[in-house]
Amino acid sequence: MIHAANLTALTGASESRSSSSPSNSSQESLVVEYADEVKQTLQKKDYRPVSTLHRKTFAERTLAEHLVARALMPESYHELKPASLDRGPLPVRKSWEDHLWILPRAMAVPLIQQASYWAFPNFLWPVYMAYPLYFFGLSHFLILSIRHFQVYAEKWGTLDEKNIGRDRIPDVSIPQLACYTAHVEVLGHTGIRAHWGPPITGPVLALFGLDATIEDHDLHHRYGKSGRNFGKQSILWDHIFGTTTPREETAL
After folding, report:
1. Angle between helices 179-187 and 127-156 (to 10 degrees)
2. How far apart are the C-alpha atoms of 126 and 4, rounded to whole Å?
3. Distance between CA 104 and CA 124 in Å, rounded?
4. pTM for this structure?
5. Distances (CA, A) of 142 to 13, 71, 146
6. DSSP per-residue string spanning the chain
7. What span, in angstroms and rounded, lies between the C-alpha atoms of 245 and 219?
8. Could you say which DSSP state residue 219 is in?
9. How far is it, in rounded angstroms, from Cα 152 to Cα 30?
10. Under a CB-based contact definition with an 8 Å cutoff, are residues 113 and 125 in contact?
């Protein structure tokens, strides 16, 4: 499914250039083409990087874009939500729920390899055999994680959703982990409206008020150059250097 693009980002980009610039006319044509764009922010301009991947057809995408396109979220994930929306009590995600979800999926490829060794004890997998399978396993796990988070984003809503929709994948970042690391990396950028932290470090660090939840990293992006909440797994160093900022929607 092809989703709508970030019209406000394109509009802001075109307004910032001289009308005589060749790139300006290109941006204007994009604005006309994306006239059906849903509202994504309360700001007069949307200064986030331009994202057009979701607008491209299958034939227009590069190989890298085809891979990244697997992570595209539904349009509702990026929409600005009405001020009257009431999501109800704040959900709290338990660490054991993450373990229960991650482990069976993370162990799939290692179990296949182990089963092979039981069946053929004298045959050890060469690198050219193991690498593609583990690469595929990790890639598949990332896609499953994204779809998993998508379910909760739809169910629980996202942070600051009445002021701004969630970011799309910027065009400039497309050319750019163990399973738990991948899980936390994706989790930190979902913006799911819940008290939800890393499954391994979270429970221990929470005892000292040093765990980094979804909102902690979301605030890091929300306030941009203010320089807050740099930690992804922990806000220990942020406390030491005075770069923490209070949680606004998920404070318990």
Report:
1. 30
2. 45
3. 24
4. 0.61
5. 32, 9, 6
6. -PPP--HHHHHHHHHTS-TT-HHHHHHHHHHHHTTTPPP-BSSSS--SPP--GGGS-TTT--HHHHHHGGGPPPGGGTSPPPTT----SPPB--HHHHHHHHHHHHTHHHHHHHHHHHH-TT-PPPHHHHHHHHHHHHHHHHHHHHHHHHHHHHHH-BTTTTTBPPP---GGGTT---HHHHHHHHHTTT-BSSB---TTTHHHHHTTT-B--HHHHHHHHHTGGG-----SSB-HHHHHHT-----SSS--
7. 8
8. H
9. 32
10. yes
- The three-state secondary structure class of 28 is helix
Distance CA 246, CA 25 (A): 43
Rounded Cα gap, residues 29 and 216, in angstroms: 38
Structure tokens at 250: 């998920």
Q: How far apart are CA 104 and CA 77, in angstroms?
A: 27
CB 83 within 8 A of CB 163: no
Q: What is the pLDDT of residues 188-227, one digit of tens each?
A: 888 899 999 888 888 988 899 898 999 998 888 887 666 7
| Angle between helices 108-119 and 95-106 in degrees, nearest 10 | 40
The encoded tokens of residue 137 equal: 């396993």
pLDDT digits (tens, 9 = 90+) for 92-148: 999 999 999 999 999 999 999 999 999 999 999 998 999 899 988 988 898 899 899
